[in-house]
Amino acid sequence: MQIFIANIDSISKTPDVYAALLSPKHQARVRKFQNQTRKLQFILGHLMVDNCGKKHSSIAHKDKWVVVAAASNTLVGIDIENTTIERDFVNAAELMNLPIPKSLGEFYKMFTQAEASYKLGATPKFTRFTRHGDYLICICATRSFKLPRMRKFNAKSLLIAE
C-alpha cells in the first residue's frame, strides 16, 4: 500500500501541460470543468493514480490537497477532511445516518471512515487514520495493512522525462 499527497498549487500555473499527460478520456473530462479548483484536483489525482503503478486506487481531495491510496493486493478507499471547520456535527451525523458523535473530532473520524468505505465499494476489514496538519485522512481496505509513510507526489518530475 502507498499513500501519496500533493498540493494543487504545484500544477496551477500550467494545468494544461499536466492535463496533456492524462488519457484522452480524462482529458475530455478536464475540458468540462468550470471550477478551476476541481479541475486541478482532478488532473492531479489522476496523474497520481496513473503514475503509482498499482492495481487498485482511490482519490480524495479537500481544499488544495489531493491524496491517493494505491495497492496491488487489496481494494482501497480514502478520504480527507479539514478538521478545523466547525459544523453542527449532530445534525450532520443524523443526515448521514451515522451514530451521534460526542465531539467534532469523533464526527470527522466517522465521516471520513464513511466516505472512505463508500469509495472502497466493499465492507472494510481494516481502517487506519493519519493526519496532515489540520487534515484527517482515513484509509480503508479489504485486507490488513500497515499504515505507510505518506509520500509527496512531485508532478514536475513527470515533465522532466520528456
- Give the rounded overall mean pLDDT: 94
Helical residues, percent? 25-40%
CATH architecture assignment? Alpha-Beta Complex
Per DSSP, what share of the residues sits in E-state strands of 2 or more residues? 25-35%
Please give the CATH class. Answer: Alpha Beta
- Rg over CA atoms, rounded to whole Å, is 16 Å
Unreliable stretches: none
| Morphology call | globular
Helical segment tally? Answer: 6
The number of E-state strands comes to 7
SSE pattern: EHHHEEEHHEEEH
Spatial strand arrangement across the major sheet: 2-3-1-7
Task: Characterize the biggest β-sheet.
Answer: 4 strands, mixed
Terminal CA distance reads 28 Å
Tell me the CATH topology: Ribosomal Protein L22, Chain A
Kindly list the characteristics that best describe this protein.
162 residues; alpha+beta; 6 helices
